[in-house]
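re: that chain from earlier
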Amino acid sequence: MAGNDWINSYLEAILDVGPGLDDAKSSLLLRERGRFSPTRYFVEEVITGFDETDLHRSWVKAQATRSPQERNTRLENMCWRIWNLARQKKQLEGELAQTNAKRHIERERGRREATADMSEDLSEGEKGDAPSDLSTHGDSNRGRLPRINSADAMEAWASQQKGKKLYIVLISLHGLIRGESMELGRDSDTGGQVKYVVELARALGSMPGVYRVDLLTRQVSAPDVDWSYGEPTEMLTLTNLEDDEDEMGESSGAYIVRIPFGPKDKYIEKELLWPHIPEFVDGALNHVIQMSKVLGEQVGGGKPVWPVAIHGHYADAGDSAALLSGALNVPMLFTGHSLGRDKLDQLLKQGRLSREEINSTYKIMRRIEAEELALDASEIVITSTRQEIEQQWRLYDGFDPVLERKLRARIRRNVSCYGRFMPRMAVIPPGMEFHHIVPHDGDIEGEAEGNDDHPTSPEPPIWPEIMRFFTNPRKPMILALARADPKKNITTLVKAFGECRPLRELANLTLIMGNRDEIDEMPSTNASVLLSVLKLIDKYDLYGQVAYPKHHKQADVPDIYRLAAKTKGVFINPAFIEPFGLTLIEAAAYGLPMVATKNGGPVDIHRVLDNGLLIDPHDQQSIANALLKLVADKQLWAKCRQNGLKNIHLFSWPEHCKTYLSRIAACKPRHPQWQQTDDGGDTSDLDSPGDSLRDIHDISLNLKFSMDGDKGASGNDSYLDSEGNLGDGNKSKLEHAVMAWSRGVSKESRKSDRGEQSQGSVFPALRRRKYIFVIALDCDDINSLVEAIRKIFASVEKETTQGSIGFILSTSLTITEIESFLASGGFNPSDFDAFICNSGSELYYSAPGAEDGPFVVDFYYHSHIEYRWGGEGLRKTLVRWASSVVDKKTGSEEHIVIPSEQLSTNYCYAFKLQSQKPGLVPPVKELRKALRIQALRCHVVYCQNGSRINVIPVLASRSQALRYLYVRWGVELTNMVVFTGESGDTDYEGLLGGVHKTVVLKGVCRSANSQLHLNRSYPLSDVIATDSPNVSYTAEDSSSSDIRDSLQKLGCIKA
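^ sequence. v structure.
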């Protein structure tokens, strides 16, 4: 590791102690360990596995101690700490080995079961391609990157895009984002991702066929940040617009759209954003719907233009994009940037924090679950390198490269995958802007000269800052540009340079290691690296040959590349592992050959550019040889330079966007289906809610009257044909239903004529309410639920009579159970406008006067949530899982989980739990994990105090059903009030966040099974905003007046 030069003096001091370590007066630890070798322990156990910064501080103190006795005591103390660190490391290695072994066993079992379910024998294609020809994500190595190779081809592709009017939504939540003067490095959240998403939005907005790009982020109006981050909208300046002016429109282009969510007037780090994600989703949903309507008026012929894709960046935005794409039923893309499981492993290996401390600090388990959900929901996962797939994504339950190849082979052959889905991994390296870069062919002498016709331009100020270090500044410059971080391996580079005399004679070395003022003020790790570099310079007497300037600006970086190229130098990245290596592409654009680590992204870059050499970062001699070869062989240097300049366009933003848009085009289009009717009309127009003819049309096209709801074993069955229209048999049923309903409307109209209030003239009734009260109480028994509902009804009796408030019952019950509950509780179905059933997988409306029953099922909601629903393949896997859960302790082998056909529907597979004893029923996270390993995507809900399990589509939930009502009927989320108890089903957290109001009834649902939430992947406190102004808590065992007081505090009703 970098920064370990002090170890030499430390080891020498230990050896100097000599017999003192074996003396009878030595510490008990050393006597117990017998022939303990602190030198060997330190080198083998500490240096290779831990950040030894603290030990370094201790050694500095020990070295400064003059008393030999005290010095020896300190050294023995350090030996004990070394032994303790080594013990921790071995313990951690054991735990990691067990975890990896368990993961391997689970994955192998999942593959076997998935293969068994996919009944036919595997063909050669399903066994996978040869390792030499196919990477784990399925792209051929021989084909390199599937990009355009010429300007003519790009022009041909661009001409094919003419006429398209695509709308793309990007999401990046954390950090400070603006189009110009980005404050990169201001904090850990405002870094390379911010630059990437802004440039991606700008580049996509400049592409032919793309009409509008929205980059959604957080609006920050805090006193400690610039005012520009509080602006709701910022238009990005686009490039290459002169060719597409005829395609520009009033709302076209690329925009940063800032959505207000989270604490007002406060800028917070990304780890604290999780409780506020639902609020962002609701705000983003409102923006996208409004923008889709605007674009529809401009370029869509009056029909909404829905996003062609929603692209989330990082885990928080991935979670948001999954919910937003589910609410809109449009395709989702995801880019992780950095991944939680990889970070967790790295932090555990450091040994400084326990798993609990890591989660408390970084909310790492919530982040990992968000990334798993992104895998569940994404059509495409975009990565920068193959290394990200092979070493990071394969750690996740939701992605198995082996199973992915099998599924892809079956899809190519049109063979059923039995409900299994795997997102497609696409390697699309980040793009760059090269149009402003002009590589220079001159050298230092040529630049210094000039004539009257072509006077030389003044030298950039950074050049003299660098060249003042060199005795001979005309020698080729070896340039390294990286932070003073041990992972960047800068000390090994200095050693390689210092110990290779031919290289020192031929070249200079420039180290751009960030900015610093005083070394003592630097973070300890960075200071340790810098001190090591300075000591090595002194050790090898490299004065006049190595430059290490203290300061540089971001705008100086291009000039630094130019200086290195003018000296016919080389750019080097010797990092132990480099996820991508953007600096390698930047250097190549300025004509610099590269020497780079063979671990990570540089392998892909070298494969495309072919402009340098790859090295083993641990092999000092390999580094020196590669640098010497490029510096000494001018023909090789010229060839590498030429290759880099020739192929660099493959990493341009236009090429990136072309590949990006081609991937999107390959996705199956999805959008809200009710917008299109048989006659081309739009059935979602809310401008005339009193038009009963329009309402009848809505029903005839979108709804089926039913008493019990849809029943069936297969999720693939549907009332819709392949085009999303009603089958002939269902049409006749609906015609009969509509006639029956219209007779009911006529009766209601006659009542209205007699002066009685009509509640049936508009369908559904919730469209005309001022407020919607959603009762989502997961009570332990029916009587408690009945009592709570009566209190809520009584609290707003006056407003209900006036018709300004409507009610929705949201529960895990089936519609049949709800009907029985209403009858037993003395309620009328018409007391509620809608019913969200089966944990959010069914949606019904009340239909007073209908002959076929009081309930109408909205099965367009089914088509809205059925994305990646596993159907029969999922059901078989769940039944097999249920049969494996038995009570082994009693020896009776009694089944604990029982499938319930009576409670199951097409989009909800229900299971009853015979026992609620702790430890007998696997927690929800374990069942979700087992299904993800088999590529089955669904939402598992433990409900009714742990007595039932509902398995529903992955993007279905009770909270998502509310968003559907907004998208479908225009019911404003800000006008919804959700009533919950103190606890509830495992989907409880989704009901507490968002722009809707929430009233928590204290004393209700308090005795809900605590095991349901204790076995979560992350604590509820990580995702619930307890200080939200939208949440009100009633008094203990509240009365109707207490509930009314809470509603008044929320501003829903007047006093």
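Confidence is low (pLDDT under 50) at residues 17-36, 43-51, 121-149, 675-762.
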